[in-house]
Specification:
alpha/beta; CBS-domain; three-stranded mixed sheet; 9 helices; CBS domain-containing protein; CBS_dom_sf; CBS_dom
């Protein structure tokens, strides 16, 4: 089985897209992450949903989870609204990791190794320098476990 057999169309966001829009896209389409494209339209990085949360959750709650408990329920339910007009660029991790990109001929083991190495729930698939879609961790595990 190859990447082309698991390939699916996948939404992208730009670096300057509002991160709240990215969060809605993640939720509406039940995605593990998003492909962030640069100004030239090629993959720049993968934005896991957890990085959106990292930006939205107040630092004091991340540093001391007990503090999250003292926030009243009404305010706790609205923490994503604190993202305001922040951009996807601001949600990206400070250190750039290896970009999880491969070609349609990659085997499932190559895909799995790339996901594991880059800690990414998806891999962007490029053919002739053009983004053709992505393979998600869920799609990979579904097919491998069904075999």
């Amino acid at each position: 089985m190859r990447a082309r057999d698991l390939l699916a169309d996948f939404p992208t966001v730009a670096l300057d897209s509002p991160v709240l829009e990215a969060a809605r896209l993640l939720a509406d389409q039940d995605l593990p992450g998003l492909i962030v494209v640069g100004d030239d339209g090629s993959p720049f990085t993968i934005l896991p949903g957890t990085e959106v949360l990292r930006l939205a959750v107040p630092a004091y709650c991340q540093d001391d989870p007990a503090l999250a408990r003292v926030v009243d329920e009404a305010h706790a339910d609205a923490f994503l609204h604190g993202l305001g007009v922040r951009t996807v660029r601001e949600a990206l991790p400070r250190h750039r990791r290896e970009l999880p990109v491969t070609d349609p001929g990659a085997t499932v083991l190559e895909l799995a190794a790339l996901m594991a190495r880059t800690r990414s729930p998806l891999v962007a698939i490029l053919e002739d320098g053009r983004l053709t879609g992505a393979v998600t961790l869920q799609a990979l595990l579904d097919r491998v476990l069904a075999s």
